[in-house]
Automatic annotation (TrEMBL):
Its EC number is 1.1.1.31. It catalyses: 3-hydroxy-2-methylpropanoate + NAD(+) = 2-methyl-3-oxopropanoate + NADH + H(+). GO terms for biological process: L-valine catabolic process. It comes from the Eukaryota. Keywords: Branched-chain amino acid catabolism, Membrane, Mitochondrion, NAD, Oxidoreductase, Transit peptide, Transmembrane, Transmembrane helix. Residues 62-233 form the 6-phosphogluconate dehydrogenase NADP-binding domain. Gene3D superfamilies: N-(1-d-carboxylethyl)-l-norvaline Dehydrogenase, domain 2, NAD(P)-binding Rossmann-like Domain. GO terms for cellular component: mitochondrion. It holds the Pfam family NAD_binding_2. This is 3-hydroxyisobutyrate dehydrogenase.
Length: 370
């Protein structure tokens, strides 16, 4: 059923292109207007038929969600708003109680979530947590040869190697209930970007690796939690994209913080230098969307004493993943090593829970904007 939905999405995409070209041709070739009018009507009928088929043939409505932290809990809220029937699990019983009081089903183990779900999404802190949730004693794949979920989506930020190991384990299973041409469960790695604010607003970006047909089938679910999903290729490529993105984000934040702190030492206010950066070649996300200087920008972690946002310990974790991945493929990683060292020291100095932009204050000794 999911494969048929994916095929229908392809059909819709092709027909939309044909429809646009046909409409353009019709308006520019008046001598054959009758022929093109018939073609237009025919394409409209087929397009409507495909859309109805799309709605009819695929309805993965029972979604399990494991990992109800700052990101996961907000993603679940958006799934519920979109009309999905959600079953949740987390090791934190208090957060599970919060959802059950909202009328959401909760289960004691990942295995139990799998029994109630056609799709399972995981949002977990580390590679070891992901391995345990999927392959552990009470994991999603506990029954081994036959599982219920047709689609498993891991949105955790973990290394590509672990992602591919889990994907292989999933591919070795069968489905309890066959779904049209979908005979085996499929895994997608779909880490996200955008942070807590985007998770709450439903504007996340998903970086997706795995079979393209499964990605097309998963898009409606992803779109209930985000505004952008980018297909990155085969299994593990979504995880690889996320690691590379967060490496660029760390280096960008360090560079921006260093420039702003240096500017202060040279007598330029952070707000003035920010204005220069944001209208010049130094402009970047760290300067114009997530400025690290307290007092320069409202609504960002630096404006609330670096509370909330993306914790320094998580950035340190992601840089460790980047370093390990670079070492595995023999890639020179000078900036990874330096960023890794800085954020490691930040965490050891007691700033692990503060937003990663606090590097401006605690590493570069930058001053608040008065």
């Amino acid at each position: 059923m999911a494969i048929r939905r994916a095929q229908t999405l392809r059909c819709l995409s092709k027909l939309k292109t044909s429809f646009v070209l046909g409409s353009y041709s019709r308006s520019h070739r008046f001598s054959s207007s009758s022929q093109h009018s018939n073609q237009f009507q025919f394409q409209s009928i087929v397009l409507c038929f495909c859309f109805i088929s799309f709605l009819y043939f695929f309805s993965l409505q029972n979604v399990g969600f494991i990992g109800l932290g700052n990101m996961g809990s907000r993603m679940v809220n958006n799934l519920i708003k979109a009309g999905y029937r959600v079953t949740v699990h987390d090791i934190n019983r208090d957060v599970m109680k919060m959802f059950t009081e909202m009328g959401v089903s909760a289960r004691g183990t990942p295995y139990e979530v799998a029994q109630d779900s056609e799709v399972v999404i995981t949002m977990l802190p580390s590679s070891s947590h992901a391995m345990d949730v999927y392959t552990g004693t009470n994991g999603l794949l506990r029954e081994g040869n036959a599982i219920r979920p047709a689609l498993l989506i891991d949105s955790s930020t973990i290394d590509p190697q672990t992602t591919r190991k889990i994907s292989l384990a999933v591919s070795n299973c069968n489905l309890k209930e066959k779904r049209e041409n979908w005979e085996k469960p499929v895994m997608l790695d779909a880490p996200v970007s955008g942070g807590v604010l985007a998770a709450e607003a439903g504007t996340l970006t998903f970086m997706v690796g795995g079979p393209e047909e499964a990605y097309l089938a998963a898009r409606p679910i992803l779109q209930s939690m985000g505004t952008t999903s980018i297909y990155c290729g085969g299994s593990g490529n979504g995880s690889a994209a996320k690691i590379c993105n967060n490496l660029a984000m760390a280096v960008s934040m360090l560079g921006t913080s260093e420039a702003l702190a240096l500017g202060q030492s040279l007598g330029i206010s952070a707000s003035t230098l920010t204005q220069v950066l944001n209208t010049s070649s130094g402009r970047c996300w760290s300067s114009d969307k997530y400025n690290p200087v307290p007092g320069v920008m409202k609504g960002v972690p630096s404006s609330r004493d670096y509370n909330g946002g993306f914790a320094s310990k998580l950035m340190a974790k992601d840089l460790n993943l980047a370093a390990a991945s670079a070492e595995e493929v023999g890639h020179k990683s000078t900036l990874i090593s330096k960023a890794q060292e800085i954020y490691k020291n930040m965490c050891e100095d007691g700033h692990e829970t503060e937003d990663f932009s606090c590097v401006f204050r605690h590493f570069y000794n930058g001053k608040d904007e008065v």
